[in-house]
What we know:
Low-confidence stretches: 1-26, 317-351
CATH class of the largest domain: Alpha Beta
Oligomer: single chain
Largest sheet: 6 strands, mixed
CATH superfamily of the largest domain: P-loop containing nucleotide triphosphate hydrolases
Bound molecules: adenosine-5'-triphosphate
Shape: elongated
Amino acid sequence: MASTFQSIGQRSPSGVNTGQRRSSVLSSGTTFSWSDVSFSVNKNSTKAADTESTVILDKAYGTLMPGTLTAILGPSGSGKSSLLNILAGRVTNSAKTTISGTVLVNNSSVDPVENRANVAYVLQDDCLPKTTTPKEALMFSASLRLGVKVTQKEKKERVDNMLEELGLVDCQNTLVGDDLTKGISGGERKRTAIGVELVTQPDLVFLDEPTSGLDSYAAWRCVTTLKKISREDNATILATIHQPSSEIFQQFDNVIVLGKRGRVVFSGPVEGLSEHFAKKGYPNPPDTNPSDHALFVIMTSPVDDQFASGLYDNDHDNANGGGNNSNDGSLKEVPLKEASVGGSIDEKAAPGVYIPLIEASFFKQFRWLLKREIRCTYRDAGSLIGRFGGTIFLNILFGLIFLDAGRSNDANTVNFNNHFGSLTLVTISAMFGTASPALLQFPAERPVFLREYSTGTYTIIPYLFSKMAVEAPLLFTQSLCQTLCTYFLIGFQGNFGLFVTVFWLLGLASNSVAICAGCVVDDVKKAAELTPLIFVPQLLFSGFFVAINAIPVWLRWAQWLCSLKYTLNLLLLIEFNNDVCGASPGAQANCNSLFARNDIQTSLIWFYILILMCLFLGFRFLGGLLLINRSRTVF
Length: 635
Ligand SMILES: Nc1ncnc2c1ncn2[C@@H]1O[C@H](COP(=O)(O)OP(=O)(O)OP(=O)(O)O)[C@@H](O)[C@H]1O
């Protein structure tokens, strides 16, 4: 049961890593086949021998020929998406899942993970940036994914042709939008997602439910376009589909029907489906869509009867890896075991690693990403207003509540505590204000990154740099706004420029922590739930509620991870300088007590700055690693 994917880690017979051969090998059309593909889910998240497992796919097989459009059909939960994900290299063996089988590309055994870059994969969820237009999305994909041999002029032409072909000309300059922001329609969004992949003229295209959520006309139009592209570009296209109408079903050349117990019921030309069911004792009633009939039989007749009737014993038996369908729709046997000669089977091979094939240079990736990031930022006016409006409102409020608290540098302990308290609260507010936008936005943006990264559009470093290049000036402006609102009202006495700089450092570090958290969780709701876990410890180590010296020694190490603590150390040293503390012996005593309680030392100023920089860079680096790790198992 615990066998690994048989072809994992293998190279093609030529010794070339198949994940890096996008155009050279596949340009003349791709024959893609698979056999004995099994997938099971272990119930206890372990592969121990006694672990119960659920079989999702059992020795699935199929063959796709160049220039054909194939559908994967089956009842809900029959494993359509799982099969597509496995073939596209988006799912690998893990503690919870076991996958085995053989995948052949042009008769050479490949590891689907390494082969990822050769597959244009259109996800069920569109995963497009909401503040981009269809034309910009296609241009972004074409510019970064088509090699330097294609000139920018040709890329523009391809984009225009694709927009035309997909019927997106009228909405090419409308924002994509999302559930909350009105943009192009659902069908247009789906076609844009398809265009983003097809503009690179891939040989192999997989689509997960391209028609879901579309009305019947939009669905028909979508499938018709796919068929046209398969013919014109000699592309090999495979799509999972839910309950297609007769008109849509007839557009497909071939169909693979998944049935019960993870088994393949039928794999062959669309016209052969009724015949297969009739031969096994389930004749198609007149005027009934063969795909509806197939699903109806699978869902309603007793499973044992289905197996007893030989419904799953195809003419193209498993040993041969399934049937093969030529362009004219006729069946042709291809013995896959024979075809796989040259791709040795090594169960001990290391799991495949996806190394994206990047066509564009580092600077080109950075330039395009930066351009998009800037555009998305200024187009998302609501977020900008919320961010800066919130900062200004809150800090004016602090300023009014703590009005002149910073000017009372006398020996009075109450006044001193107000002065210290105002600085602490403004700093806490700065931490939340700079981290929240990233914490709430990044989980929503992450699927776009994962899709683009896994299709080799760009690498992680230009992505993180481009985000930083836009975020850093925004954080600086936010810090400046905050300081302007509080500094003069409260009457802080430290250096204004140093205040802004330290708040900015805090913003950079908090932003990194937020991005790191956004990499761990799946959605905005979970990110919001994670907020206390990230920020409450920061408050505990800030020295405001409890002095650092009062925290148990074995817990004090955690302060090293708290940017708030070092920001406060710096700000207290800037604010409670010689002018403030030296005003009277009482003021000096208060300052000394404050610094001693929180273990703050003037000689360590550069050390505190260094820690903040390390937190900023360290969490950013960790976020990058988490993102790469995610992209291995999730799209
Ligand atoms: N990683 C996983 N862990 C646990 N269960 C899984 C996993 N992947 C797939 N499954 C299960 O496998 C079954 C098939 O899922 P899959 O999404 O492939 O079905 P489907 O045919 O595409 O369904 P639908 O048509 O409803 O989208 C489901 O019961 C699903 O819960």
